[in-house]
Amino acid sequence: MIVVTGAAGRLGQHVVRRLIEKGQEVRGTDRIPFEESPTPFIEADLCDPEAAASVVDGAEALIHMGAIPGPNGALPYEMFRNNGLSTFNVMMAAAEQQVRRIVFSSSAFGMGWAEDPEAFVPAYLPLDEEHEMTPFEPYGLSKQVGECMAKMLARSTLTTAVSLRFTNVARADMLDKFPLAPPTPEDPVTLVMWAYAHVDTVAEAHCLSLDADIDGHESFLIAQPTTRFREPTIDLIRRNFGDRVEIRGDLPGNASVISSLKAQRMLGLAPGHDWTTATE
């Protein structure tokens, strides 16, 4: 049985439906009621350790998606307290009960989303999992800390863990709005917002992570193969960053600034759902 936290959320519902389609037994949980849940559902506040332990009781695997999404204007203290404490409680409960696998909804925002788009200058592009996580705000920090918790449990218990760093989840109807106006020094856009992840890709990544052949803990960046812009990515990088950013590997056309090659290789994640081919 798979426990999904945050099951009442838009993305959580999508993941639950995908699991059901794959024949999985699912138990959903959230801190808000969800009367239309297609699976058994427990309303619980995971900041309560006893509630977290009850939610994961009997589970084979845990998909932890529950969090205050952000950055969304929530108070910094409340953001970090909720996301950090709930993650600690539910992951600890899972490991103590010898749950086989934890899949953690991390975020590419932990790589460097900032209110000031010029604050984050990456060491190199495209971003990959070897690049340091450099959060600028509490939401990204809460995700980095969540990954640290997952790593700790994976090296100290029998539970293995996967962290998925996705960004800018887009539904199919949102692709109709692409391409967007390109970022410029006069009208900058934080780098991780150049990328996007299709909701079906993100849901599938969570499902694939349940049974991926992984020892310990692994992190994966998740993004579609193109940016949200039509212009060549190399030109946008040079226009916005000059020579401050090293370009590693090939970035043809409007290729994404976030690489998902590791997820394709280790999870078997397909790179489809590109806005440039969505209507073809």
Structure, explained:
- The protein has 280 residues and is an alpha/beta fold.
- It has one domain (2-277): NAD(P)-binding Rossmann-like Domain (Rossmann fold).
- Helices cover 31% and strands 15% of the residues.
- It is built from seven helices and eleven strands.
- The protein has helices at 10-21, 49-56, 76-96, 138-156, 199-209, 233-241, 261-266; strands spanning 2-5, 26-30, 41-43, 61-64, 101-105, 124-125, 160-166, 169-170, 197-198, 217-222, 246-247.
- The strands form three sheets. The protein has a seven-stranded parallel β-sheet with strand order 3-2-1-4-5-7-10, sandwiched between helices. Strands 6-11 form a two-stranded parallel sheet. It has a two-stranded parallel ribbon with strand order 8-9.
- Helix 1 links the parallel strand 1 and strand 2 (26-30).
- Helix 2 (49-56) crosses helix 3 and helix 3 runs parallel beside helix 4.
- The longest helix is centred in the N-terminal third of the chain and has 21 residues, at 76-96.
